[in-house]
Amino acid sequence: MSIKKASHKTYQYLALIIAFALILRLIFFIGFVNWHGDDGVYINYLSEIIENKLRFDDYRNLSQDSNVSYSAVLRLRPMLLYTTAFFFTLLGRNELATAFYQIILSTFGIILIFHFGKMVFDKKIGLLAAFLLAFYPLDVILATTVILPDLPLAFFLGLALFLFLKAEKYKTKDAFKSKKTKLLLLSGISIGLGYLIKPAILVFISIILFLYVLVERKFLKSYIFIVLGLSLILIPEGIFYYSQSGDFFLNMHLQIDAFRDKYHIFETPIVLNITPNIKFSYTDGTPIFYATSLFGYGFREDAGNLFGYFYYFVVAAIIFSLFNKDKRTFFIILWLVSLFLYLEFGPVLVELSNEGINYLLIFKNNKYTSILTFPALLLLSYFLININRSISLIIIIILLITSIQNVALFSEFTSSAISNVRDAAAFLKEQPKKDIWVDPVSYGMFKYHFGFNQDYVLKLLYNYDIDKIKDAYILDGGSRGVYIHYSMIENIHKEIISRLPQSWKIIKVFENPFRMFEKNSLDMIIYYAPQ
Q: What's the predicted TM-score (pTM) here?
């Protein structure tokens, strides 16, 4: 077979893998599920963009008055918010359009990991890595979960490292006038685009590149082009925030103040006194959170898990690679292990005071591990290609079947958590338009499901005299997401039930499918309060 025909066949396989990946993502589409609340906050900022109300002038004089909510940092992620808003308005105001950006980057991620594997190893490993990514549970789930930054962040981090390693293959005396320069510049721009999704990429890339320089024992002058590429993003961003708030470093200042808010106001940290002058604090997960969750521990049996059995074989792949002493795997192992250790033990802040040092451990959430996906699957593919073919095939089949099972369970679990809201919004669209009274958690969710249409007037049902509500719909009960705000919904429900006006009529009841997971979940009832 000629090289041209072989190459054509390779890309045919890649196209089939992409088609398979898209089918999986459409079958198990999740949408907006208020997953730990973050996507709900992003939806509120999405509405500000669409209504042209997203401003930053309220952050003036931040250094003098830095009482900043943790959710404030989510406003400063334009590569997530504005791209989502673009597709939302371009393709129609619906959940598929809102997730379109995630689906695109998930698809590009499959193409990227193929080229990554092909560049570092060979096309067989690249194709297998692409196939594994097509059904890897975390990627399938994040690809169709509306407006979360983790998958896009992982993509731009992977792209930056791919461009860097590709640049390293060029050996030239005049690096400043070569293709190497352009690749390094593009690598820096990729880091910058990732920064506009989540600034944490600067920490991740710094760790990886520092270790690369340390291990390779070289630092080239041409690396300055990475900084230059990054500056092409950071400087315009700083100028924009300065014009809005008077603070060039607004993003950095908000990050620091918001992290303090989550630790000292929003959350109650657990503090360990290592020495009289050194404190170790953590919240939102234990210090060894990922060491267990990557292997499926801590997930509900009826809800599936985000990793399947992948990391059992990834550990085997690391041991196999080290035993083989294949230098091609060293950087990939370094990438994976260094980021895992940072996610597990790295600081989100280190506070210095007269009392000593307070080491604030980074927040934990399984979706953050998306930055481990590329190196993990590249190593796993290398392992599976180089072991016995029959054993390799058995492992792939096990991973495929169990992954689809986990994705199906997790998709049903999360989607059921707010199906009441979707159903209620669809029902109210068919009714005569009247004021709609909802709880604070539902407010943004219903705005979203109404496509931010101003014809639907939403009002907050919280600490309000329900006897004064006339000629309006009132929504009571239901679910608002996975592990989100049950106490508030329950309190409002009790208030309505205890003082339910006799004139109110039940016009619709939506049974809560989330009851299969949480027995105390309420059905959603829509009342009508007459004149």
A: 0.92
